[in-house]
Amino acid sequence: MIRLRPRIPLRLRFFFRAAFALLALAVLGLALTLLAEEKERAWRSRRDGVDQTLAQIGARLRHPTGQLALMNPEARPGPPLRPLVLPFGAIDFDDRAKAQQAVEMAGCALQYADAVQLCAAVGSNPAAGGFLYLVGQLPLGPLAARAPGDTDFSHAHRAQVRVAMRGREWRWLAPYELPADAGAGAGRGKLTGFAVEAGTVADRPQRDFRGWLWQDARCIDGGSADDCLRRSYYSLRLPVELFREDLQAARGRPVWPPADLDRIEVHLRLLGPGDDAAAPLFDSDQPGATPPFTLAELARLLQPGESLRVRRLGPGRATEVALLSGPEDLAQPLSPLLERLIRALPVQDNPAPLQASDTVTTPTGRYELQLTGDRRGVDRALGRVATRTAWFVGALLLAIGLTWAAIELRVIRRITLLTRRAAAVRRDVKEGGEIRLDVAELRGSDELGVLAGTLADLMQRVNEDVHREHIRARQEKDQWHAVGHEILSPLQSLLALHGDPADPSHRYIQRMQQAVRVLYGQASPTEAFQATALGLSALDLDQFLRQVAENAPHAGIDAVAYEGPGGPLAVQGDDYALEDVVTHVLRNAARHRRPGTPITMQLQRAGQRAELRLHNQGPQIEPAQLERIFEYGVSDAPADSGSRGQGLFVARTWMAKMGGTIVARNEADGVSFVLSLPLA
């Protein structure tokens, strides 16, 4: 016979080449896809970041401190002290709490050392009269008040105020006075203002000059000494004549705040009892004061490359107030190739440029905020990610190339040859011939060589095992033929001796004849049971089980107790096969029960099925063996007992052929076998 060379269904060389090429393309595609998604996320993140930053800035500027910065964009830290426009119409300077609350909310106070504060401001409402307010706090010792009618102010605490504006100057001297109804040590008094011109103090106080000085009753250090330092607060309202002149000249359309507000100089000195030349308790021109919040501080909220433009909206045109920029991006520039690649990646809804705007309304007007992001900043940030990713992509491509070369040169050729030999083995198996696998040239010390040698040895052992199995099968078949022939003859004679159907032995002889017929002529017990067809019919299971329980002693099983449902219960079954099942289970229960304990059988109806529970008291079954005990050949009986591990296997086989089930369950005091059959 001519031996044809087996045909290989798939060329591995082409398959692996295509697979590695696709893998390399997939790595590149994955890298580009990830970069595109990263760019999309970066754009969305940058857009969201611009919106969030603008929202944060807008919220900051809508607060009174932010409005103060918007309304005073040209504010400069002193000295000299310069007034600011408040986001309030005026200050209720007569009320300490309201005055302090207005200053704290607006954040207009300069912060000096030792918790000293001072706010110089004008109200945003020109109808309030055009006054200049000085509100502050500082620690002071016991206050000395001016006696009524005393023209020598050196015995009292006093305030010296100077205002310079448009080449003119105003001065006041305001001594501390107690109200007429206040007793000694009162914590609240007036600062009565006397105008000072050419070094001469006026005889009468100026009516529009108003001031107050308050002092806490508690000491700052928590002590109780009379001469301790206490927190003191003051509030002054200064009449500025030029403000009033401007308001009167405007005739109903005042320009407020004054255009030269940032050029007004204010100087305040608080003096204690003593000569005016002595060191003041506080001087507003002293250095080191921390200024209020300004627009320039918003630059800290900006990202690299972002810029914030603030414009004041007016009729017909907008005036630029401030232009702030974020920190400089100090990252290394990208390579031109990588920059072009990133720029070419598509982005949906790509705004040009990144921009967001908002409007803030203050008492003096509306301001537009315009925040612009840096487009190139997104590409630079993505470029840094791409640079790190490129190393991993390059390493993956190198690994793919090395793996392909190794497989191509060392594995594929030998696998192809082994595949041809395996195809020849498959043909030999189909033809029923001897299995041969020639792998002499494939043997070696590597994994594939060891595999080839192992397969060759395995094929040889398979040939030997197949030959032995054929011999064993023939011998077993001959044995069953002989056993069946020898048993049927004496059973036929016994049946003639016990021909009365009422004789219990008659039924057992019939069961033996059926078992022999099942096994007669079959190759193995497993095949015999599986190939046998049962004759199913309606069977009263209650009456059947009562009879089995009564006949159990004849089979060598005593103390079997049966509990039925109290009436007929018909099922579909074969009475011989079912009796065989119950007997096998009873024998198994009798072998494992504790001496002197009964075996109980309980029958009940469970829906459309009948359920029989056989229970014995004794040791439990290992959980891992609950299913294996129904396999053929599994038995825990001693080897010399003659048990072949066939009883429970037969029981499950017959139950399956009758449409039923059998399971084993561990109970608290022993083991139960539950049989279930469909109702007739």
UniProtKB/TrEMBL annotation:
SUPFAM superfamilies: ATPase domain of HSP90 chaperone/DNA topoisomerase II/histidine kinase (SSF55874). The keyword Metal-binding does not apply. Keywords: ATP-binding, Kinase, Membrane, Nucleotide-binding, Phosphoprotein, Transferase, Transmembrane, Transmembrane helix. One of its GO terms (cellular component) is membrane. GO terms for biological process: signal transduction. Residues 482-680 form the Histidine kinase domain. Pfam families: HATPase_c. InterPro entries: 2C_sensor_his_kinase (IPR050980), HAMP_dom (IPR003660), HATPase_C_sf (IPR036890), HATPase_dom (IPR003594), His_kinase_dom (IPR005467). It is found in: Membrane. Its EC number is 2.7.13.3. This is histidine kinase. It comes from Ideonella alba.
